Amino acid sequence: MAKPSLAYLFTAFVFLSVSTSSAQPPNPPLSDTFLSCLTQHANSSTPHSNIVFDNTNPNFTTVLPNYIARLNTPLTPKPLLIVTVLQESHVQATVICAKSTNVQLRIRSGGHDYEGLSYVSQNPFILLDMFNLHRITVDVKNEVAMGQASATLGEVYYRIWDSSKVHGFPASVCPIVAVGGHISGGGYGNMLRKYGLSVDNVIDAQIVDVKGNLLNRQTMGDDLFWAIRGGRVASFGVVVLFTIKIVPVPETVTFFRVDKTLEENATDLWQQVAPTTDDRLFMRLLLAPSGKTVRASVMALFLGEANEVLPILEKEFPLLGLKKVNCTEAHWIDSVAWFNDDQGSKNGAKPETLLNANPREGLEIIWKKMIELGEMGLVFNPYRGKMAQIPSDATPFPHRKGNLFKARYSVSWKDPSPAAAQNFLNQTRELHSCMTPYVSKNPRSAFLNYRDLDIGVNSFGKNSFQEVYGAKYFNDNLQRLVKVKTAVDPENFFRNEQSIPGFVVMTDRYR
């Protein structure tokens, strides 16, 4: 094709110059458009300019703290706007206005997504920050509590304990994790063998759907209520509040930590006992390299007194060598604070701080790999008990009967350089690969709250989800989640790199 002539270029220039007087005015900044929309749709007397921040606002960088160090870099994509909602109507209006401006929405309650998907996107996005929605109410008489999305689990535990010394809630040992993300991804903790997961104890919820409607269990329907309890609400809407069933705990519980080395063989018996013992007993195994060996630490909670658990373990787990001097008897809330202490020290923090294949052969291979790598840690959490009694399709979380343990791979480092980050991530991947012969297969299962983009990402329009990571998180529950997604969010507005797609997205590649 011939290049345009000079005369053509000159003519075009003159035409544009003459037409400027009648040209359309430039589009207003996104912040102005969004504020106008928010004012129209939010039923609130709060000046909306007080809750919307763009990158010219001096408070922008303080409102946007990144919780994961490796994602806190100048190259980390930042939102176009941050909306720090104060009430439900702000959430509703934010969804409506983000959709009307055709800008992607990311929703942050606690910000503890391991891959940062709650506050990072490679596409232009608005961050809906739920930080101010952290109200908690407890009704001991009816054994229920309500927690807004950004209430931390530590705050929930404390408020329950403040109302009753004989109630608790089965959720994470990490008290700074928020209700919204933890519960909607499944949620587990030290009482899972007695009471199941957090989602097994959810009795109602409030969410905002893609149309900006505020729904509860009755108005959202059974399918959507099923989906948000383990399928991640962020694929379907914005969770505002969960209503949970609080559970009875003894006035006195027992917790302890016993350290062994691999030469002492305690882990051999632990893997036989931990998932089969009394369902009041939860024994978590932590493995960490220690010189030329591996230190194995058993941290445990027993829902009862020391005199009850000692004879159980003397019979079932004599190699542990548990003595009464190793045990601490206290309120359940003290066990929560103790487990949150990385060292499991006997003098745990005060409750107020919560406000702030061949098994033997496989373990030997894992130990050798951990010693070789030098920095990696493994945590094994035993299942069975109540977990084995709940059907795999009761909630989207499918890993129930037939599973003995869940393993978590972890590594931490202080060197801020990209090279160090890559080195330690590679170590994690190497240990994960080493475990392959000894874990679930076809597919190798994964826990949604341990988010990992290595196992696959959504390519929006290609079927990567179903083939790569969807089945790993949800097994046979995947198709029902896709069906729910198609019904409630057919245009796939609520999406991220590992969200649930609708049927249109799932089948696009076959057209």
Automatic annotation (TrEMBL):
Organism domain of life: Eukaryota
Residues of the signal peptide: 1-23
Keyword Heme set for record: no
Keywords: Disulfide bond, FAD, Flavoprotein, Glycoprotein, Signal
FAD-binding PCMH-type domain boundaries: 75-249
Cofactor(s) needed by this chain: FAD
InterPro entries in the cross-refs: BBE (IPR012951), FAD-bd_PCMH (IPR016166), FAD-bd_PCMH-like_sf (IPR036318), FAD-bd_PCMH_sub1 (IPR016167), FAD-bd_PCMH_sub2 (IPR016169), Oxid_FAD_bind_N (IPR006094)
Molecular functions (GO terms): FAD binding; oxidoreductase activity
GO BP, sorted A to Z: cannabinoid biosynthetic process
Keyword field contains Amino-acid biosynthesis: no
Family indicated by similarity: Belongs to the oxygen-dependent FAD-linked oxidoreductase family.
Protein name (record): FAD-binding PCMH-type domain-containing protein
